[in-house]
DNA sequence: GGGGTTAGGAAAGGGGGTTTACGAAGTCCG
DNA sequence: CGGACTTCGTAAACCCCCTTTCCTAACCCC
């Protein structure tokens, strides 16, 4: 059983303070203390650390009611760069962020179905990472880390992609392969958790101790924020919600079971919902998820009845599933994230809210908000970069002595 | 957002140490340190605290390989009493425990359906609590607390039963009502969480940071142990798993929805499974859940094909539901608890294991054990009493000065 | 240019856990 | 039978964390 140490408190507080600074960028220590609930002294210490790391800078002063002006700090955008890599079935998407998490450069590599070998994927990642660094004109030393999101089960400690269903990878030592080509610190995890962390730091889950981040893309999952941090489970595979049975003996899922949530509310599932409702619909682009979802989104805008009905139908499944999560976790907020959610937007959320309200118990429902992710870019990239940010921040904790002289080691009076 | 303080660490460690002592009763500080991962010094401090509280006592010595013997400590059974109250639809069950959590006295009050008013229920509880105290011949001052488990949504802070479906209670200030009649410290929560805590302290979840306690009774729920402690959610209603949709548009549930897990694997649901399979079965006692489940259990023992099939069928639903929990939480262990699980026992668990294995993803499945609760008595009573124990232990943390003279508290040399 | 006010830093203080040192209480063996 | 060796358990020193308190810095106003 993992034991919590007082160090963890410091780390959590450091995260919290930096989150707050990034969110409300020019801000004062006073404001930070109020927002985080920490004492002024602690905030000052943490701000001092971050200043020393050059992650933030002092940017001026702000009038205070008649007294000494408040010093303002802001993210030091040029204090370093973070890279987020989103590996998906058909593409590798890489973004380079400054410390304010603005995108400075982007690169995308298309991956053809035949290129499913790990080495090929590593090649794509390496190329794209090189590209964004070059584009942004950043010197290598300023890259604080690279977060990599790869689908499937990931062992963070060993950096092994234990199982990636898309390419039938088994126990691929991805971290080692990447390390050979990329010199920056690497952090590996899966998109589910990346998106959840992005939401925790920069999105709708910020400042919430309990949140569920529902990931609606080609696949479906639920990142769990519990007790203020990401819940990973015992083998880092928590959050696999896509294969929850929602219709016993329902649609066949590629996982081998029937009736998984994913087969109804993932992009292919939504296509199927559309096809079942209106087989000849012009909204349907048989081989193209992205186009079909985009067409549905367009349809919603012009109140196309078929589009509305498909969304309503999808929301019915999604609402039932989310209601289960609300009952089970009693979260403060449920965030709908990823590209399908972003595309279908508020109309989907509104339908989902209604559907959830029909299914969930009143008390947990009353405590829960259901919102769309406010994150405008690819949340998996952002989340992956956030892992890198967390990593960079974590290593601050590594108190490496500081007693430079290492005095009198000789004190050893060897016994025996 | 709740902030963790270093005090919480101490509390958690105190819990852990006491748990370990209760579990392995005569035990040494060495063993405790090894089991908890704490340093010897910390264990010694905590043991010292518990000794001073008279919750444990020194009970002798144990040979150590050639050196000073280890001092042994054990629970001081007579150091206090804890009372657990399990309020259910048709009965109020009260047990009085010593500090080793042995049952010293029991009382049961039957509740007739007409007696659903809170005052009547309070009367039953008061009577039963008085009864167990009298039976056990305990002086009032020795009762450390009374834990009360009441179905539905409970606000622990205010002690209000916000909603209890059985009796249509709304915002009943149960704690206040009980306080008028019961002088001991009171702790209120619901059976779901009581059972989970019982399992965490004394059952199959002991020492596990992540566990799911599936509660199979008339109602169904899932107590969540996450990060070493009970997960309550933002309004203390986490764990409501019974109304998870498992069959879209399935059986009508009293919650108003269709296809809830509870309607398939709760005791009434199992009866329905039986009725659907074999309408005229002699196993069926139409108006008596307890008798029907008992008959099924008997049937299993003699390999009655109908009983086997009913259990298999129930396990099919249950397995699908539990697989979802395994995927979602990635727990170390799933514990099947409460009277239905106890009655159907290993045959049910074996079927459930198979069913879960069919539905869950391989990786989380590999990390999860599915076991029957080892707790022999009413787990809700035990869990309620555990809340009282936690409460008593918590108030130790209230260091109010300590500048009290009280030196040399009676220099009692430990009895040889 | 003093008083009043507010910000921010330094020091003290209260928790917590661990490491180290040392006395206590046995065993082993000459 | 007593010293040497072992092992336990406590006390003290140390490090980490957060908060409270005190004091100085910096600005406003009169």
UniProtKB/TrEMBL annotation, chains A, B:
UniProt superkingdom: Bacteria
Alphabetized PROSITE patterns for the sequence: ROK
InterPro entries xref list: ATPase_NBD, ROK, ROK_cs, WH-like_DNA-bd_sf, WH_DNA-bd_sf
Region ranges (Disordered): 396-416
A Pfam family matched in the record: ROK
Family: Belongs to the ROK (NagC/XylR) family.
UniProt protein name: Transcriptional regulator
């Amino acid at each position: 059983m993992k034991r919590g140490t007082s160090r963890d408190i410091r780390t959590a507080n450091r995260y919290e303070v930096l989150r707050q600074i990034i969110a409300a960028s020019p801000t004062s220590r006073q404001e930070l203390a109020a927002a985080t609930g920490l004492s002024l002294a602690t905030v000052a210490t943490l701000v001092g650390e971050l200043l020393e790391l050059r992650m933030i800078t002092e940017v001026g002063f702000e009038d205070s009611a008649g007294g000494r002006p408040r010093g303002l700090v802001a993210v030091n955008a040029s204090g370093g760069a973070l890279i987020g890599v989103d590996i998906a079935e058909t593409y590798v998407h890489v973004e380079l962020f400054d410390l304010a998490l603005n995108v400075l450069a982007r690169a995308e590599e298309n991956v053809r179905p035949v290129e499913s070998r790990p080495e090929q994927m590593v090649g794509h990642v390496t190329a794209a990472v090189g590209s964004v660094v070059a584009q942004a004109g950043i010197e290598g030393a300023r890259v604080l880390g690279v977060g990599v999101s790869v689908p499937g089960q990931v062992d963070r400690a060993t950096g092994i992609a234990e199982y990636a269903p898309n390419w039938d990878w088994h126990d691929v030592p991805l971290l080692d392969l990447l390390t050979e080509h990329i010199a920056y610190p690497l952090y590996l995890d899966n998109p589910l958790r990346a998106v959840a962390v992005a939401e925790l730091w920069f999105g709708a889950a910020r400042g919430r101790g309990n949140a569920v981040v529902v990931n609606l893309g080609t696949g479906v999952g639920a990142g769990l924020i519990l007790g203020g941090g990401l819940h990973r489970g015992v083998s880092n595979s928590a959050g696999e919600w896509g294969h929850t049975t929602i219709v016993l003996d329902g649609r066949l899922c590629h996982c081998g079971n029937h009736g998984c949530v994913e087969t109804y509310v993932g992009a292919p599932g939504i296509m199927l919902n559309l096809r079942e409702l209106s087989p000849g619909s012009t909204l349907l682009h048989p081989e193209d998820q992205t186009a079909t979802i985009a067409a549905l989104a367009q349809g919603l805008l012009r109140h196309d009845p078929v589009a509305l009905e498909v969304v309503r139908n999808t929301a019915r499944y999604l609402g039932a599933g989310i209601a289960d999560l609300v009952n089970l976790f009693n979260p403060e907020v449920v965030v709908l994230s990823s590209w399908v959610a972003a595309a279908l937007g508020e109309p989907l959320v509104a339908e989902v809210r209604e559907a959830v309200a029909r299914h969930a118990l009143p008390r947990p429902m009353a405590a829960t908000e259901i919102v769309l992710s406010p994150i405008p870019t690819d949340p998996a990239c952002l989340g992956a970069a956030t892992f890198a940010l967390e990593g960079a921040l974590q290593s601050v904790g590594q108190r490496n002595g500081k007693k430079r002289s290492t005095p009198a080691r000789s004190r050893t009076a060897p016994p025996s």
